[in-house]
Amino acid sequence: MPTLRSASSGLQLPNKRPKSDSTTPSKKRSSSRFKETKATPQSDDAIGKIAQCKVISSPTTSRKRLYGDEPVQKVKWNPKDPAQMKAVKEALHVATVPSNVACRDTEQNIIFDFCKECFKKERSGSLYVCGCPGTGKTLSLQIVKSKLLTWSKEVGHDILDAVSINCTSLADTSEIFSKILENFEGTCNPCSPLQQLQCIFSKRQSLPPKMTLIIVDEMDYLITRDRSVLHDLFMLTTVPFSRCILIGIANAIDLADRFLPKLASLNCKPPVITFRAYSKDQIYEIIQERLKGLGYDVFDSLSLEFCARKVAAASGDMRKVLAVCRRAVELLEAEIRDSCELQEFHTVTFDLMDKALSKAFKPKNVDTI
Ligand SMILES: Nc1ncnc2c1ncn2[C@@H]1O[C@H](COP(=O)(O)OP(=O)(O)OP(=O)(O)O)[C@@H](O)[C@H]1O
Ligand SMILES: [Mg+2]
């Protein structure tokens, strides 16, 4: 068991929240191969106006002064309460969509602004989103999609159709075109789904009258020997009068370079948005944010810091972080169940987190030996 000293050496307890935009990837991930092409973000007028508003400072004789500056005491977590335990596990579950996505504002804003510009100008476009597993690509695109749908309603036009396809669900690579086509009505002519889509997107007056946002997740599943499926997909954004915005998501940084060389020669290679691996500060912030709504502390800050540091150094994968944190909570649950002492259990301690981490990072062959 590591001593507290070994754990805390070099650890800095985050006493202030790290900046959400400062993506400091782990050394492994920060190679120059991670190129980021900014997709001409446009400044949002509305946001600009809000930013210009001056904050009116509170008077010196504020309530804060009258009642003192002491921070509000958090309610203590009672892990023996089944309802509370359930809420904690749910907040740490990978399938739970968090109400607030921390540390991905920059990437989300770039994608949002890119799409907004395309919609405003009724112009097609494509983007390629890449990054290591568990870096919030799918989650961020879900958020951007729903923000865009809300925005399109707010501006008063029903201007947007949005389609999301995960390529792992396709039986065949070329099925991607029929999946997209399913979203358009009255398309049942003898042409192939791809030809029908080309026809739809290339006619000025024909359907769709709206802009269509197509999000293709796990795009690397579409790589074929001749790369034709990927190529044809991106070419949908280049046909004359196309109103299709295509966003491809995959792990490989160089997918566009390697598999879409023709697009580069046609000068329509999609800009690349890279989601860097999460740093320890970001991981810490994300977990805190996911648990904020509960109103009580689940982890000792030292234990959470330890987990963040370890996962950031290995991969920066949020899925791994969530799995380790859930495991640590389960260990606490088991400890409470097995204990006959009237001990007070309130938070996941460093030791429990250490056990959870050891299990997660144990070499694969240890079990078999
Ligand atoms: N910034 C964040 N805030 C809260 N939760 C996050 C954040 N980023 C990732 N997660 C969580 O981590 C898990 C993995 O995220 P996501 O599926 O978006 O990763 P990904 O980059 O698409 O991974 P993959 O390349 O494997 O598809 C999800 O449960 C998601 O809710
Ligand atoms: Mg994903």
From TrEMBL:
It comes from the Eukaryota. One of its GO terms (cellular component) is nucleus. Residues 1-12 have a biased composition (Polar residues). Residues 1-44 are annotated as: Disordered. Residues 278-335 form the Cdc6/ORC1-like ATPase lid domain. Residues 123-238 form the ORC1/DEAH AAA+ ATPase domain. It holds the Pfam family Cdc6-ORC-like_ATPase_lid. GO terms for biological process: cell division; DNA replication initiation; mitotic DNA replication checkpoint signaling. Belongs to the CDC6/cdc18 family. This is Origin recognition complex subunit 1. It comes from Rhynchospora pubera.
